[in-house]
Every structure is written in structure tokens, then in C-alpha cells.
Amino acid sequence: MLEASPWNAERAQEIVTKHAGLEGPMLPILHALQEEFGHVGESAVPLIASALNLSRAEVHGVVSFYHDFRHEPAGRRVLKLCRGEACQSMGSEALAQSLLGRLGVEWGGTTRDGELTVEPVYCLGLCASSPSALLDGEPLARLTAATLAEAIDEARGL
Amino acid sequence: MTRIFIPKDVAALAVGANKVAAKIAAEASTRGQAIEIIRTGSRGMHFLETLVEVETGEGRIGYGPVAAVDVASLFDAGLLSGGAHPLRIGRPEEHPFMARQTRLTFARCGIVDPLSLADYEAHGGWRGLSRAIEIGPAAIIAEVTKSGLRGRGGAGFPTGIKWKTVADAPADRRYVVCNFDEGDSGTFADRMIVEGDPFSLIEGMAICAIAIGAAKGYVYCRSEYPHAAKTFAEALEIARAAGYLGADVRGSGHAFDIELRMGAGAYVCGEETALLESLEGRRGIVRAKPPLPAHKGLFERPTVVNNVLSFVATPLILDRGGEFYAGFGMGRSRGTMPLQIAGNVRYGGLFEVAFGLTLGEIVEEIGGGAASGRPVRAVQCGGPLGAYFPPSLFDTPFDYEAFAARDGLIGHGGLVIFDDTVDMAKMARFAMEFCAIESCGKCTPCRIGSTRGVEVVDHVIEGVKVAENLALLEDLCQTMKFGSLCALGGFAPYPVLSALHHFKEDFAPRALAAE
């Protein structure tokens, strides 16, 4: 995963301005901000509100509605582990519980060394190759506890 | 120069297709053999991924499932001339999983290079659009209506009627919106076709745009599909450069362009009005209907909102005629449905077939039963809001009306298979939990009902006042079913009630036995 840049109001303003001319620019702006800074923080809200002629409350309402937008940066790597029914039919819940237990985190949590965030996802469209996950955007399927641990270690350079 | 085809569909990437491709390139180079590797979509036989195909004198010969460690032995066995090897499956189209299919929508998927315009044209691409330009809006709509095509997103609304409604609505501008927010667990047909044959979606949307008089289209893609989004974005640029999109679509005088927009992880945005709200930049909150999106949709303009598969079906309908398409299927379910056989299943993947197979044929004959080798106990049909069917209902034919008659739905065509280790009370609880997580919050039955539903199921599982709580659960489900604004709250009772009715023994067995 690319390292997120630290917050920079000028750069953020540029991003907002660049997309403000689109029809319905809100989600493209939020995605672009998150891609740049790794999250959509409170400081971004007034910038967007002013550019789109909305109240801060309206902008905050949108940011907080969608599961994707983070309020603080994630760990260096992000694992999205599928919890959909197809993955459950192949034992994904036990897989998830053992992983979360081993890492000592809850769903959505980040390991204490800041290396890995584990998030639930509801379907990756890999339902005939369950259980599945995305690790920093790369798909993984037919996971077992061993192959999942191996993929995580490999990503962390261990 | 031997051509080798290796999928780049995520279902193949997720099991190491890139490593296989790299190893094949390296091995060929070491052995001084000239090959060209072409990356395709997936054939849909996910149990054979990574499926490697080699072009030979007798057609393409497939090998699968191939892992990187198998590559050297494949070369030793004469891979490039289709040599014998334990992984050799012969011609993929003659594989039993493929031979029973009718590939109309997925005809090109897994065969062509998804981003090659030459491949697309060579395999019948753009013929539907050419005919659409030739015959004009009224005749396009007549053709689509005649085909009997119904919305493949799940609701099954007749596509021709929707297009006509939008075309007839007076407006200064109209929109084409493609719902690519394929959030149902157990479904991947939209993803597969966009990754494997993206031009067909562009062609289908362009046909719709000409039919309704729209100049702008949006594809709303879920963020869980980054690979499909990337492929589609590239396809848009290629199509634009070649004049299939832009100010004058293929010299027709029609202006039409498509913009790709990404969702942000909200399941409810697969509901068409929530999707429109999201596109406009607001919370994905469901709108009350009427007004229908066909009258007041995106930015209050008449809008066609169709699923990916609905659009992708239309080029063929235009090319071959509505009657050709309507010649497949049963009852009021015409044409083919790309089934997605998923979960705990031996032969999982995409199986496109005319409506009418029974659920048992699909699960046992085609799917080969559970991957675990244990007996199949339940099949969830139609995504997280679909009913669980027990084997005693396996005689149900795959048809919109037949499923509805048994309190189920075919939805987007996903079938998730569970073996006999499944705890159906847990699955019922999960359906309520999922609804609570994903509810947009606009209507009370869904917002509050789903949370109360989790609690009531928990009480039942704990054995607290089981009979009273089960009665309460039934009542709550009726309220959600009839009182919710959209299908999220309205259909969440399907998995809950079907689990309860068909698998009662899983709900607090000890307490029930005592009562």
C-alpha cells in the first residue's frame, strides 16, 4: 500500500477544487482525499462544505454514513476479511476469530505495532472460492488459517 | 509462437494466476520456446482456477487447476502442443460444467482479451449497437420488450417497459445509470462480465442511451471491486478513443459518454434510489416511491437504472432479435440467467442457463454437492435477503414466479450452499445483524426492527421464553416485510423466516423439546 501523505490543507483544497465541477462531486472528493491522506479527517469537512455550498453537518453526515471513509489513518497494511454467507459456509467466522484472537484486535482494530488493520467486508465476489479476503487490495481465496497467516507475514516482510 | 491464455479475473488472481503466468513465461524462456501470453477473463469454472489454455490445432486445450509448482511438469508433458497431463481437461467448452450451459450474456467471457477491441469485434461485438443506430429508439424498445428481458438485479421488472417509461417522460435531459453495486453475498456475475468483457456493458448502455435519448451514463461500482473498476476505466478510454463513446457515437449523431463512479462500502446503495442519492453526493438513504426513478431519477431527471447483466443482455437482443432471446426460458422468465453457484460446493462458479432447471439439479448435478463431501442442508438463494431452501424444496424450478410461490426469490441469481454443519439459528441472527449494520435508517421497521430482531433471536438461542419469542419474531418479520420502505428491511425476513420454518430444530432445541 502506498504511504499516505500527512494532512496538508493546501493540497486538500487542490483536490476539492479539482473535483468540484463534477455532477455530484461529493464521493469523488472523499475518495480522492482518502487516497491522498489515508483518511478523511475533521479538517477536511469545512473545506468541502465551503466548496460545495453545504453545511458542515451535511458533509459530516455523508462522511460518517459510508463504511469506507476512515476518520483516522489505518495501519500500514489493511486486511479486509469477508464475512458474507458464502464465506461463512466455508468456515470464515472461525478463521476470523482465530486471526483476531492471535493479533489481539477487534474488527476494525489495528495491531499495537501499527502494522495491520483488520476490517470486515461483506462480499468480494469470490464466493465460489471462499473464504476470501483483500490484503492491501490484492485478492486472496480458498484461505486457511495457515495460508492467511503466511500472506500476512509475507506482506509485512517477515 | 504458441498462444497461451491465462485469466486475470480476481477469482484466478486470488489463487495465484499471476505467479502461474510468470512461471510459464520464465519456463518457456529457459526452454527457448516462443509463446505469447494473453490474459483473459474467467470461463467461470472457479474450481479449475487457475485454468491455463493453450491454442493448438484442435482448438484450445485447458489445464486446471494449475499452481506455479505444476508449470515445469506441464512443460515436460508437452503443454504447448496440448500434451497429456493429470491436469489436462481437454477443450474447455466440452467440459461437463460448460457443455450444459447456454452462454448468451457470457459468450465471450474467458475467451477474449477483455481490452482488445479487435477481439470484441471478431466475436460479434458492436453488432447490436449498429442495428440500434439503424432502427432507432422506438424499434429498440420494441425489440427489448419483445425479448421478455426482466431486470437482472433482482426485482425482475420488465426492462422494455422501464426504457419506454423513461423515453416517454418529458425532460430536458435523461440519464442511463448502471447499478454495479453487486453487494449480495454469493454473487459475482456482474464482476466477472465487467472484468472479462467490459465492452459489452458499454455497448448495452449505449443502446439504452439511444433508445431513451440520454447523453450521459454513470456506472456505480462498489469499492470492493477495485480490479473490475480498473478494467472498466481502461475499457472506457479505449471505447472513447475509437468513437464508441463521445460527441457522435459511431457516426450516429447521438452523443453519449459514461463516467465510472465508486461506491463507498454501503450495501444499501444497491437499492436504486439510495444509489441515486449516493451519486448525487448524499448519504445513501432510500427515497420513497413514487416518484419512480423512471420519472424523477438522477438530479430529478428521468433515469433508467438497470443492473449490469440487464444492459449486457441487450446487444445480443438487438443483434439476434427479441424473439431469439425470448425463445429461451420458461413462463414469464425469458432468456438465460447467469447462475452463481457458491459457498460450500464442489463445482462452484458461473453457470449461464435458460430459466427452468430445478434447484436440485443445480445444486447436486451441476454443483456436485458440498465441497466438504457432507450432505447439503440448506441453500440460500438470492443473496443475504433471500430465503434458505431445504433439500425437500429442491424440486423448485429456477423461475421468478416459482420461487416467489415458495416464499423465496431468485434475486441476482446467487446460490450459496451449506452443508449439514450449518447452524441455521446463527444464520437467521446474521441476517438480522447484517440488516442492522447496513440499514440506511430512514424507515423504522428496518432501522429498529433489525436490531430488535437480533435480540429476539438471541433470546431464542439462549432458551429464554422460546415460544413467546418465536411468536414475537414472526410478528416482527411481518412488520418489517410490509412496513419497510425498500427491499433491505422488506426482504430481511425471508432468510429469518425460512430458517425458522424449515430448520426449526436449530432454534433452541432443548427448550423446544421441553415445551
Order of SSEs of chain A: HHHHEHHEEEH
In CATH, the topology of the largest domain in chain B is named: Rossmann fold
Architecture (CATH level 2) name of the largest domain in chain A? 3-Layer(aba) Sandwich
Look up the CATH topology of the largest domain in chain A. Answer: Glutaredoxin
Number of domains of chain B: 4
Note the overall shape of chain B: globular
The SS-based structural class of chain A is alpha+beta
How many strands of chain B?
16
List low-pLDDT spans of chain A. none
Termini distance of chain A? 16 Å
Number of helices of chain A: 7
Q: Taking all residues together, what is the mean pLDDT of chain B? A: 96
CATH architectural grouping of the largest domain in chain B: 3-Layer(aba) Sandwich
Short key terms for the protein model shown above:
heterodimer; A: 158 residues; alpha+beta; Glutaredoxin; four-stranded mixed sheet; B: Glutaredoxin; Rossmann fold; 4 domains; 22 helices; 16 strands; 42% helix
Structure, explained:
Chain A has 158 residues and is of the alpha+beta class. Chain A folds into two domains: 9-65, no CATH class; 77-155, Glutaredoxin. Chain A contains seven helices and four strands; from the N terminus they run ααααβααβββα. Chain A has a four-stranded mixed sheet with strand order 2-1-3-4, with helices on one face. In chain A, helix 1 runs antiparallel to helix 2 (26-37), helix 1 packs parallel to helix 3 and helix 3 (44-52) crosses helix 4 (56-65). Chain A is elongated and about 50 Å long. Chain B is an alpha/beta fold and 515 residues long. Chain B has a five-stranded mixed sheet with strand order 2-1-3-4-5, with helices on one face. Chain B is globular, with a radius of gyration of 24 Å. The chains are: A alpha+beta (158), B alpha/beta (515). At the A-B interface, helix 2, helix 4, helix 5 and strand 4 of A face helix 1, helix 9, helix 12, strand 12 and strand 16 of B.
